[in-house]
Amino acid sequence: MALTFDANLPEARKAAMYAAGHWRRDIIGDYFDRVVAATPDAVAITGRNSTTGLTTTLSWRQLRRLVDRIALGLAAHGVERNDVVAAQLPNWWEFVALYLACVRIGAVMNPLMPIFRHREISFMLDFAQSKVAVVPRTFRGFDHGEMMRELRGSLPHLEHVFVVDGGDEASFEARLLDRRWEDERGAAELFRSRRPGADDVTLLMYTSGTTGEPKGVMHTGNTLLANIHAYLTCIAVSGPQVLLMGSPMAHLTGFLYGLMLAPVLGAKLVLLDIWNGATAARLIHDEGVTFTMGATPFVADLTDTPAIPGYSVDTLKTFVTAGAPIPRVLVERATKRLGVFLHSGWGMTENGCATITRRGDPPEKVFGTDGAALPGMEVRVVDSDGRPVPPDTEGHLQARGAASFVGYLMRPEKFDHDADGWFATGDEARMDPDGYIRITGRAKDIIIRGGENVPVVEVEELLYRHPAVQDAAIVATPDPRLGERGCAFLVLKPGASLSFAAMIGFLEERKMAKQYMPERLEIVPEMPRTPSGKIQKYKLREMAQSLAKG
């Protein structure tokens, strides 16, 4: 039985969005089909699989053939409308084809970051009642196929695991690609009957919250496409585009501005499965890349790679960065060295990129803010009572609009919107008189490491289980490349000792994702606390910043 998506989508919101033209009846499959019809032999995707060493280039016509075959294969394996298909895949062509195939038959895709391991994957697959999981055989030295074999028995809803490059009868290729499903079942009628509506949930993507337990963000075709259309008006690209996507497509950045943006624009999508500044520079040169987007480390790595003088990057006109605070000096350096217009933005899984700087903005906006709201979106800064504060006053950032998500899966109580639809983002910001915001901090207890949210409480809870640990708290420490890294402050039990290596070993034994692990350890005699006993994390952050400078 398919999962029921308890989307929060009032008729009043739908009516307002359609009336304003922010929402439409088209779905991403329509854009895909139009591109195939218009330019069937143009390149749709090119990308190298770093595990196999093979580069795959597909035309739009070839991609459609694969999409349709995968869709029919999924249906033949029992995938029904609204069933969840999980994909823990790197930036490979299979990821793109799988999502478009899900759209064909009304299934919901749930991308999972390749960094996740047993602990995260078991929770996410079980919570979403995923019927199908697609994973690589191996990626970056980790055996995803073996992990799924170990977890399979504890996941009662999971009926099929398809392994890309699996090499056996249960592989993605054997089950979905090698058989000519289109010769056995009429595609047109199936796709017509399964076509999702523009307001149906099409994407389920996890985000980490203050509780340390991931929440499943639900997006419809309209909330995603509304963001893309508004985004395009702000970055003002023109002419044929070539998109480079090195940010994981399992992250909303890669999903929206790589996978979905390509068919909307009819653009070639160049995929990079392991980010590297020198490789990115070569791809920009070889493929004529015009656009890319990524968090602060992507900007820093491309700007500072010694490979830049060896390649021409003149075709790259637009670089959008969001997901982690970006230092002004880096924006200035990237603009000068790459000759690119660098857009700064702010966003989150719940609404995509919600603010952005515009081409033509004066330098003080480009270098000193995170932009103004996209068309169809609104942001405001309020005090603790929910009242808007004067310009240039720090407060709590709220957002609402066409791109806002439609709730957290099976957690309606977490849908933190007021009666007027304003969503409490958990970020702190100030807004200038022109409506441009600057993120100043976060109320949420999260570290943003290279654009990825680290669920602090979950890591702390594991550390509390170590026999030597009495108290644990993790805070962000500044990092010039990743934006932030985690610093663990621990109070040990009397007579106990714990080294950094031992702490990491303990977390590894419990299958914690490497990117979530603290990268610094400080043993302290006691935690700074409020009179009520709560740890004063702001004091620990101050300590961490001082240690980073030292």
Verbal overview:
With 550 residues, this protein is α/β, with parallel strands linked by helices. Among the domains are: 30-36 and 60-196, Rossmann fold (3-Layer(aba) Sandwich); 446-549, ANL, C-terminal domain (GMP Synthetase, Chain A, domain 3). Helix content is 33%, strand content 25%. It contains 17 helices and 26 strands. The protein has a 9-stranded mixed β-sheet, with helices on both faces. Strands 4-3-5-8 form a 4-stranded parallel β-sheet, with helices on both faces. The protein has a 4-stranded antiparallel β-sheet with strand order 18-19-20-21, with no helix packed on it. α12 (296-304) links the parallel β13 and β14. The longest helix has 17 residues, at 60-76.
